[in-house]
Amino acid sequence: MNKLLRIGTRDSQLAVWQATLVQEQLKQHGIASELVLVKSDGDLDLVTPLYEIGVQGIFTKTLDTALLNNRIDIAVHSMKDVPTQPAKGIVQAAVLKRASYKDILVPSSSRAQPRDLTDPSADALLTIATGSTRRKAQWLNRYPHHRIESLRGNVNTRLRKLAESDWYGAIFAAAGLERIGLRPDNAIELDWMLPAPSQGAIMVVCREHEHTVADACALMNDATTALCTQIEKDFLRSLFGGCTTPISALAELSNDTVLFRGNILSPDGTQKLETAVQVPVQESKGIGITAANQLLEQGAGEIVAAIRNATHS
């Protein structure tokens, strides 16, 4: 295409890295582009917890507005930040190959690692920082004797706050730190923690009916990542959950088989419902919905309702 594509992105280091990756992949296909930096509401307010802001789409709506107003041609998002229902007039154009989906614990450099995190008598006052209700719920489910501190901001801001704190550590997405070369050597992979739906994936969106732009973006699409993240998003949407609901999901493709795992917890971690489904890839359409229905039959709707009532009270 002859058109110079305007790529909209948040102005954080990680967001610009992701947009630059998109720019490089477009260039490989002979498509010229430029970056347009836009600051989101989520970047401006670093104090209010996300669940009080009304987090659904907080990191995407400013870019979506710029897209609908024709200030940009495509927008690049961390896919886990994208609402399950996109803004009217905007469509998914590509999902890039997924990086690590894992969460990691980054200990504060000023703290020695406890010998046993599960021992309540040894570290009853251990404090872990995160701004994610999902990470908080899963951590408290595993370590109910620990304390959780709210942590907001982009990756660089959160690392700085951690270094200045007396917390034991903070939880980050591995992909975010790895992409900009900031993953510390002492980071601990939390293999037991299920990620947010589509964590580690990058999504590109464009305006509906702009087929030339959509076709250009489709050249970057990774079919496996697109399949797995769609299953995870179906699970989230079917549970009527958003970014403030402690819902986790992971779909993996191996030997023509899709393995899906998902869970939902109460914010304090005391309630947990989980499911696992394994099917041949040709039968994988709709398994996110099937898995969600399994949890709804077990009472997941009551957890979601309680969270909504607490949020609006």
Automatic annotation (TrEMBL):
Residues 5-213 form the Porphobilinogen deaminase N-terminal domain. It catalyses: 4 porphobilinogen + H2O = hydroxymethylbilane + 4 NH4(+). It is an enzyme of class 2 (transferase). Residues 227-296 form the Porphobilinogen deaminase C-terminal domain. One of its GO terms (biological process) is heme biosynthetic process. Keywords: Porphyrin biosynthesis, Transferase. Its EC number is 2.5.1.61. GO terms for cellular component: cytoplasm. GO terms for molecular function: hydroxymethylbilane synthase activity. CDD domains: PBP2_PBGD_2. InterPro entries: HemC (IPR000860), Porphobilin_deaminase_cofac_BS (IPR022419), Porphobilin_deaminase_N (IPR022417), Porphobilinogen_deaminase_C (IPR022418), Porphobilinogen_deaminase_C_sf (IPR036803). Pathway: Porphyrin-containing compound metabolism; protoporphyrin-IX biosynthesis; coproporphyrinogen-III from 5-aminolevulinate: step 2/4. Belongs to the HMBS family. Tetrapolymerization of the monopyrrole PBG into the hydroxymethylbilane pre-uroporphyrinogen in several discrete steps. Monomer. This is Hydroxymethylbilane synthase. It comes from Hydrobacter penzbergensis.
